[in-house]
Amino acid sequence: MNGFQHLYIPGPTNVPEPVRQAMNLPMEDMRAPDFGDFVSGLLTDLKKIYRLDRGRVFVFPSSGTGAWEAAISNTLNPGDKVLMSVFGQFSLLWVDMARRLGLDVDLCEVDWGKGVPVEDYAARLRADTGHRIKAVFATHNETATGVTSDIAALRRALDDADHPALLFVDGVSSIGSIEFEMEKWGVDLAVAGSQKGLMLPAGLGLLGVSDKALAAHEAATLPRSYFSFSDMIALNDTGYFPYTPATQLLRGLRCAIDLLLEAGMKSVWARHHRLAEGVRAAVAAWDGCDLVAQAPKWYSDTVSTIYTPQGVDARDVISTAYYKYQTSLGSGLNKLAGRAFRIGHIGSLNPVMLCSAISAAEMALRDAGAAIVPGSGVAAAQERFRATTPDRLPQATPKAA
pTM for this structure? Predict the structure, then answer.
């Protein structure tokens, strides 16, 4: 009667109707004779999303955090030195995991609002002539702050230092949404989650693995069981899994991959950029608001994290949007709690949907005490969308199951 709850958080994202329908099927036999062909095709096409020619993509029934753990435990050894940085809640959590798993973390602390400190990394890599650093970690898109880092520049830093360290990338809120070139950028391990750009419910942790990382796996001694590459490889090569897979999610993933590949990854990246630009135009029009990302080079095309005006509690904005306007906005995490809220512009979205998000945020901001001109953000976004949206968008349709 009151319509539906609007979802504009950076994950889980909206599930397209074809994907939802693809998952709406009876339970199936994950050991059936024809299931292996389905899985083999799925894993092959996932490499196209990652832009990976060689190597493998593993799909674990887990969150992206599980894929993080799989990446570390299968390629590194206890006490290995790794180079990491913290500039948001999710890069912080990755550091915490590395330490819990027994790694020696060489840490770069960065202001929240900036990204991976490539220059600092480069200096430490050049100084590491004995190659004690075994891996370099980078959060490509820091979901907490709305910051994207330059992974290609990080690869150049490794190459310039002639350093053999593995390159780990958290691509949870970037892969399938913004430019990501695993092969071209020389990324060795890249983590994604089903609930972001792949437009599925949470429950699948995806991990792209290069040939170099697969070779490192042969000598790695960190404990693992559930996340073992060896177990996955042995069964994946036959089209199956070493344990019960999330079959309905895999059927949805097949549909989502078809939608993305039919649209073309470059087209998907361009759409996310157009949508993000509209949201950024709205934020610029709101008096007293600003992006947490400190400069355009850091701006994320999948999530905008927005400081509220002085004296306005972001938690009130989020609560008002939810209860009064039936709209979910992302909360500020860790040190940003109460200071910022987030608008996710990732996955299955269009300009009209985002105008709704901006309108709800604008009303909630005003209700919470912000001195914002009514309609200012919506008008700014409308004009940006009018100027940048193609006259006719391609209509992607998934292949028949």
Answer: 0.95
